[in-house]
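Ticket #4471: structure output looks truncated?

Reporter: J.K.
Steps to reproduce: submitted the chain below (750 residues) through the standard prediction queue, then opened the result file.
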Amino acid sequence: MLHLRIRSVFLFLTALLIGAAHAQPAAPLVVMNLAAHPDDEDGRTLTYYRHARNAVAYSVIFTRGEGGQNEIGPELYEALGAIRTAETERAARHLGTQVFFLNFYDFGYSKHAAEAFEKWGGRDHVTARLVYLIRKLKPDVLFTNHDTLTVGPRRQHGQHQAVGIAGYDAFTLAADPSYHPEQLAEEGVDLWQPKRLFWRLWRGRADGAYDVALPVGAVDPETGKPYYERAVAAIMEHASQGMGQFANRLRGDTTYFRLIRSATDAPPDPQDLAGNLPPNHAARPDLTYLIDSGRVPSLPDGVLTPDHDVTVPGQTVTLRWRPQDLPARRVRWALSGAVDTTLVLSDDAPGSARLRISPDALPTTPKKVYQYRRFLNHPPVVYALYRADSDTLLAAGYLPLEVAPPVFVEAVDDVVRLRPGVNTIPVRARVFDPLTKRLTLEAAVTREADGAVIREAHVARTPDVMGHTDVDLTLDLPEALAPGDYTITLTALPDAAVRAPEPARARLHGRVFEAAVAPGLRVGVVRSYDDTLEKALAELGVSYVMLDSLALAHGDFDDLHTIVVDIRAYLVRPDLRAHNARLLEWVRRGGHLIVNYQKTFEWNPENADPFDRSRKNPGNFSPYPIHLSRDRVTREDAPVTVLHPELPLFHAPNEITDATWEGWVQERGLYFPREYDPGYVELFEMNDPGEPPLRGSTLLARYGEGTYLYTALVWYRQLKRFHPGVYAMFANLVSLPLVDGRAATGVSGQ
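Returned output as attached by the reporter:
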């Protein structure tokens, strides 16, 4: 076995790419798109330069979209980030680009760049990370959808603003030898000056203030369709964000840009961001770029079959193939990354090889943990096949395996509710090292107020054949367990004959609190894609039923006191839209309906029906008109004023205090109603710093003998984290018909 010099491979592949370029025959043209979130990338421009101009096209995304909503399931935060990362990678295959993530955490919607920079470690920290990639990838042209404005009615997301500002700063700082010179010690990271920075205009033709009109609607000779059709296919991959409904917006013939910064005297071209620029002799796209961008063929799935799909550092695996499936009988096979080996196959070579994973290989799975340690997200072993007697590249790709830690442990939930007496903590452990024969799981509970250890527990398990160990750890906690916050430390201790240098650990929060509900309460739930509401009702001991299509169609809800409609249910439940009138009739007869936040797209009458784009939303989902806006309160610590503290809603069955509003995560709420019938009572007032107060977040109205409550606050995010005050408030919300005498005391009727 011989070790292959990676640099020589890169130089060869760069020469191969240079020779194939059409628009820049001397060297590749390199373009780089800057985006805050996975769905923000400019797919039309990327695919145009990749396929019409044969450019090297990079997409640099600052976050993984962890702070958004999930329209396909209950996963949030890091787990949602893993989903959106995979969606972005699939989208890139349509575009022919390579995606780099800067791994700043998406903390939710913000209104000012200052908040983004504060949470991301400061403006210099953000800019320096971008400068590093510019110096490494050496783009000729930068472009972004994100401006640097911080005011105005149509201002961009604060994280978008931060991207625009960082891009503006990095444009010149990448060429400044005094700026983070330590970066230059890495091979291939050099001072670099991009030539142009563009901002894509949303309304370029409206005011004529554009510098380039890019013909993205030109016909792609490879497909016979406009170039933008590749971007349409790419945006459809972003299912967790429901981006498919916006795909038609990409079917436009022209994209408009304004030149923001320039470092060249070359005259601009009104139809080309890179017009008249000199050839790029410095860029060195590597093998992973050629693979990700589709410039080199990969072997079909199933040709390469390792005996493990997940390995650990230091492990030896057997890779098998059928010689007749390879593109040539005699090949030189270079493996790099977590394996650094060259194999030479002759006519009589066997169809297998033993490969050792480097002891220093960084884990790549579980994705939601280890994705944040890498810019790129491809599998860790890269292969390249050459003819044995030449440097002709036949195929390249990734081996179908990942690298994991020897043992991994996590709690099923991020936060759990603890009670005096016996508690069960669902724990999920994975044993990836085949040498591990036995595993001991331990849990220690400490009180956060003083660090006192309350209880410890452990259980020994033999991993099953797939290496999974799912177990409920039992914690018998004292009867005098005080309300408050606790930390539960989970430890997985493998037996001695393993490659694990230390035990695997995870921590989760535990909360002790009480929240009462009205005795005999019965609740119905109209679920969307989240499962928080039913879990919260179960925690409260409430009798509840899930309302399916049949139940909604029959409209027989008289055995229920309260019905709760989940977030975004009017987007994903056509049966709810069809039978909403039955719910309102039930309210008129005395029921209590709670509707959680919806978006303007699925609610307002001027928007298209998501299930029939030829029609508009009906506009009668609520008993009296409610018109949603994009108003929101993004600061999770924004002060809240209760406007009608005399209402039973704030006193029974739980007394609501200021603690209800302390310790929220991510935001207060979004898509607040701005226009609504005077028959609604406004319950809360709140606002972000420097903005006028908003009173439409939660509206309550009497309708016939019943009550209707619309709330745009993100109760579900707080319920997921077992927020004690929010649990008390939620209990009061669902208990209302049993504590107000069904006279809706203090609530105006109409």
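Triage note (M.O.): checked the attachment and the full token line is present. The chain has a mean pLDDT of 89.
Status: closed, working as intended.
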